[in-house]
Amino acid sequence: QLQLVESGGGLVQPGGSLRLSCVASGFTLDYYFIGWFRQAPGKEREGVSCIRRDGRTSYYVDSVKGRFTISRDNANNTVYLQMSSLKPEDTAVYYCAASQVSCSTDRSGFSRWGQGTQVTVSS
Question: Do 92 and 46 touch, CB atoms closer than 8 A?
Fold first, then answer.
């Protein structure tokens, strides 16, 4: 079965950190662009960051620049999102997704999605 599985979410206080993981099973991430998206209650799903097949970062959404870092470990078929200096407005369900085409902020280009992991930033 081809799937992506996210983990690492949870409840954290403002200013805290979390590292999200996205593990692929049934296929190799090497050939894919991997994006992280998030969706807060009542809001559209937005692209947070994306990493290219060669490991270079494609983009960060302005609101997370300097606080989030995306990376990939192809040997372990995993992509990470390190989140620091978290703010209440980062609260959302975070999804990873795979595309064979490009690192687009448009989610329509991503053919495979994980089930999401909840991140809640609150005191």
Answer: no
Please compute the mean of the pLDDT values over residues 29-34 and round it to a whole number: 93
The terminus-to-terminus CA distance of the chain in angstroms comes to 39
Q: Using 50, 70 and 90 to split pLDDT, how confident is the model at 106?
A: confident
Q: What is the mean pLDDT of residues 57-69?
A: 95
Contacts within 8 Å (CB) and 24+ apart, 40-49? 40/89, 40/91, 40/92, 40/93, 43/92, 45/95, 45/107, 46/105, 47/104, 47/105, 47/106, 47/107, 48/81, 48/94, 49/81
Tokens of 86: 């978290």
Mean pLDDT, rounded, of the chain? 95
In a 3-state reduction of DSSP, which class is residue 115?
coil
Q: Which residues contact 65 (CB under 8 A, 6 or more apart)?
A: none
